[in-house]
Write a structure and sequence with these properties.
flat; membrane; coiled coil; transmembrane; mainly alpha; two-stranded antiparallel sheet; transmembrane helix; 4% strand; 74% helix; DUF2802 domain-containing protein
């Protein structure tokens, strides 16, 4: 038999196997997808409310208010005041924009200065590493450690003690390291 070894569940005299469980799960998922699609269709079919719409521009709003107001025609001085107000507001907007751009430019310049400092520090580190590599490549493997210590700035006595070489040899290694750096 096909499903003889699969687990099953018996509830109130009804035996539910894996196959029936999978089918029930597929049915529930299909029902959920149908519900979601139905709700999406209802949302797209509804007109937007007035609160969801974007507000009109400032100039257009003042024209709409002036056109719908029951007051008599606006006098010439009110037009001049409105024009002056619009010029002042646009000037203030330009100043705010310029201030924001200046602040951003100053911040970018500071970041560039910081990056330049980091780059110069990395360049110095790289040059020191190259000097160490050159020193170890030109010297016998026996004196490699001594050469690295000399390039790092250790004195001849310390090099002789740590590397187990004679002090005269250590002084020669220090002199060689200094000549390669220069």
């Amino acid at each position: 038999m096909f499903g003889a070894g699969l687990p099953s569940l018996e509830i109130a005299g009804l035996t539910i196997g894996v196959r029936e469980g999978v089918l029930a799960l597929i049915f529930l998922v299909a029902l959920y997808i149908g519900l979601v699609l139905f709700r999406m269709r209802r949302l797209t079919g509804q007109p937007r409310s007035t609160e969801d719409r974007e507000p009109p521009l400032v100039g257009a709003a003042s024209q709409d208010v002036a056109a719908s107001s029951p007051e008599p025609a606006v006098s010439h001085s009110d037009d001049e005041d409105a024009a002056a107000f619009q010029m002042t507001s646009s000037r203030m907007a330009n100043e705010l924009l310029n201030d924001g751009l200046e602040r951003e430019l100053a911040q970018l310049r500071n970041e560039v200065d910081i990056m330049r400092g980091e780059l110069s520090a990395l360049r110095e580190d790289m040059l020191q590493e190259m000097a160490h590599l050159r020193a170890t490549q030109t010297v016998s493997p026996i004196y490699g450690d001594a050469m690295q210590m000399a390039a790092a700035g250790y004195d001849a006595a310390m090099i002789a003690e740590r590397c187990g070489i004679a002090r005269a040899e250590a002084e020669l290694v220090v002199a060689l390291a200094r000549s390669q750096v220069q």
